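Table S2 (text version). Query chain:
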Amino acid sequence: MDDRKKVLIIDDDRLVCNSVANVARSLGFDSSLAFTLEEGLDAIRSAPFDVVFLDVRMPDGNGIDILPQVCRNSGSPEVIVITAYGDPESVESALSKGAWDYIEKPFSKADLSQLLKDAILYHESSTLPQAALDFEKEGILGHSPGMKRCLTLLSKTLSNDASVLITGETGTGKELFARAIHNHSLRAGNDFVVVDCAALPPNLVESILFGHEKGSYTGADRAQPGLIYQANKGTLFLDEVGELPLSIQKKFLRVLQEGRFRPIGKSSEVESDFRVICATNRDLDDLVAKKVFRKDLLFRLRSITIDLPPLRERPEDIQDLTNHYLKRHSKKYGIKPKRVSAAFRDILVQYSWPGNVRELIHALESALAVAHDSPILVPKHLPYHIHVQVKRIAAARKQAQPGSLPAFGNHTLPSLKDVREEAVSEIEEQYLKELMRQTKADIKTACRVSGLSRSRLYALLKQYEIS
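Corresponding structure-token output:
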């Protein structure tokens, strides 16, 4: 059996293809060439590869567009994007879709050789047999490239105490990931303490986190240990860490550095040995730039960063999630499993899910309740706004003339990113208006239905000027 490493080069520049192939062969690796995207896809469908070099501008399309397909190849190759026309947006797009690295032409033989050796070494380490870890019971599942990357990172957090920062939109499963890390770590037998930073009362935040002695302030009729001390030997999970008051950040940084602190009113310090995991849906680098979040604290919190993709970017996971949560809900309510119509599944895949997985879970629970004794789930069992929104978008597409973009007229065509953001904003606004109508503007009910936190819901209502 030939166990030599295999490298595929997808580039329409034959000189570049041959140069990369020669470097690969000099390192003892097999190399294959493809001069179009179609040839490249045919190659990865027929054989597994360890590393794929992928050019951006190809005769039959943009290489970044096929990145997810390349990453899903049976060999799960490391993909190195190469281009002579680098720009910041394409770099971000490539890395977010699973590229291992992004390099610009021209590159030296020495640099290319080192890059290829590093990629092969990384690929070998990531494909070593590991103890099987099943995160399904935590509600974490998916086979999309984005989720595979997140699960790989998750598995690398379990044998150490490195601080972890979990980012992503509301409802993507940040707390599920945090609990999974704790439950499979060396601290699993101890407490997992949750701190909702957005809900901390400003006048009591220090007492809640650090604790206090009896009589240390008006109303302190007994001593309270504080959440940091309660997390001793366990895990402290700071949810929505971007909301942590600036006045507390310096004190918390000292706790992370020294492992001890002084509760309010206490003359001596106490120690607490805990692991910290944080989650946020905000851009912490932007908060640092605005001087509302400490840069030194951010460095301490993100030893490992797991960026969870929104559900709209991993539609291939929706069927697995649907099957899992329908089974869980059916068991919870003691009802017979129901069949799912093709039309029901189509609606789930086509909807944009602004509330992400949390919204999907609530939608499925609602559908089961509405379906009642029906043996099959159909689109009308879904929440009204989901069904209507998908049908409206489908109708609008049918009305559009093929090959034309009348909305833009003769003006310069906007970027795809701008168009996407505008479309998502329109959908979010429609959803929020319908949400407030159905819940009669009851914030508690609206949070439960949408899966949004109270602070996030208020922020969106303010953004779209919905009263």
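Notes on Table S2: Residues 6-126 form a domain with the Rossmann fold fold (CATH 3.40.50.2300). The mean pLDDT is 87.
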